[in-house]
Write a structure and sequence with these properties.
Elements: E1 8-10, E2 13-15, E3 19-21, H1 41-52, E4 57-59, E5 63-64, H2 81-96, E6 100-106, E7 134-135, E8 149-150, H3 153-173, E9 177-182, H4 187-192, H5 207-210, H6 212-224, E10 231-236, H7 248-260, E11 265-269, H8 287-296, E12 300-304, H9 310-318, E13 324-327, H10 329-333, H11 337-345
Parallel strand pairs: 3-4, 3-13, 4-6, 5-6, 6-9, 7-8, 9-10, 10-11, 11-12, 12-13
Antiparallel strand pairs: 1-2
Length: 359
């Protein structure tokens, strides 16, 4: 049995293999009305295809905890019970296929209120369903983005409560894993990094202050999430800045803090918080950051970033660089990547009865 297809148990949730789907926004929800932010047929088909393809864990796209937390007006949300009910159809099907359903909870912060990527992805205003973005400081992401409104301490506390409320709904909707999105320049990442956090109160300045909001969110989610189910945290391990940003050393230190606060796995990505940086993208380019966290902390670790080949993924696990691999674009290209990889590696993965003639 290839390490890629061995089960892994986190708390009391067993994931059947180590091929996981990373969150990828589909920008396909209704932007307003009673079904705003709710998944529909596109989302069902999208996730169902990867489940029948053998993926062990599927994390839904960044799902906003509040309307103004959406990256675009077309993102999914989980701030009301209508959305909760529409997610149940997805979680039921994934569970029936042996895939563990997970959800990533998010707030877009200063990078919220943008158009769909195929429409250019520029910030949008009220005339296009947009709104005033929020952030830790009144500092724009770049010259295209508006200056966000700086959050007050009371507003910060309110967003923390929104994460907890969304986690409660996620549990009721049938999710087994919840991931807090602290990466890619969105709100929690903005608080962590001195590049975007210029506050002088209890939420800015020192490492302890800049990590305060993230840990408060984790504590709030962990408090409502069952003790037998895992909590993940997604992080950008570096801002890719020479100075003045979040660093790999910070990530290792913070991983230990997250572990102490009940997080079970760190989903290690990079970048997204500083505009115009040069990122040395290439096959597995983010794996060394995951490997360092795994080597230096007690946390389980997921690796992501241009992982496309079965042998490549197997090597990451065999070398002890991560506990699982998360695939993004490759699963868009090939929903049955897990089945194909199992054949290549001489392993087995669950195949729906209806598809057994394809073996």
């Amino acid at each position: 049995m290839s390490a890629l297809f061995e089960p892994i148990t986190l708390r009391e949730v067993t994931i059947p293999n180590r091929v996981w789907m990373t969150p990828m926004c589909q920008y396909s929800a209704e932007p307003e009305g009673p079904l705003a932010g709710a998944p529909h047929d596109w989302h069902f088909a999208h996730y169902a295809a990867r489940a029948t393809g053998g993926t062990g864990l599927i994390l839904t796209e960044a799902t906003a905890v509040a309307p103004e937390g959406r990256i675009s007006p077309y993102d999914l949300g989980l701030w009301n019970d209508t959305q909760l009910e529409t997610f149940r159809r997805i979680t039921r099907f994934l569970t029936a296929q042996g895939t563990v359903p997970g959800i990533q909870l998010s707030h877009g912060g200063r990078k919220a209120s943008t158009d769909r990527p195929w429409k250019g992805g520029a910030p949008v205003g009220p005339e296009a369903y947009g709104w005033q973005p929020l952030g830790p400081s009144a500092v724009a992401f770049d010259e295209r983005h508006p200056v966000p409104a700086e959050l007050t301490p009371d507003q910060i506390a309110g967003i923390t409560e929104r994460f907890a409320a969304a986690a409660r709904r996620a549990l009721a909707a049938g999710f087994e894993v919840v991931e807090v999105h602290g990466a890619h320049g969105y709100l929690i990442n903005e608080f962590l990094s001195p590049h975007s956090n210029h506050r002088t109160d209890a939420y800015g300045g020192s490492y302890e202050n800049r990590t305060r909001f993230a840990l408060e969110v984790v504590d709030a989610v962990r408090a409502v999430w069952p003790a037998d189910k895992p909590v993940f945290f997604r992080i950008s391990a570096t801002d890719w800045l020479d100075e003045g940003g979040w660093t790999p050393d910070d990530t290792v230190r913070f991983a230990r803090d997250l572990h102490a606060h009940g997080v079970d796995l760190l989903d290690v990505s990079t970048g997204g918080n500083a505009a115009g940086v040069r990122i040395p993208a290439g096959p597995g380019y983010q794996v060394p950051f995951a490997a360092r966290v795994k080597a230096e902390t007690p946390l389980a670790v997921g690796a992501v970033g241009l992982i496309t080949e079965a042998g490549q993924a197997q090597k990451i696990l065999a070398n002890g660089e991560a506990d699982a691999v998360l695939l993004g674009r490759e699963l868009l290209r090939n929903p049955s990547w897990a089945r194909q990889a199992a054949r290549e590696l001489g392993s087995e993965v669950r195949i729906p009865d209806q598809y057994h003639r394809s073996v």
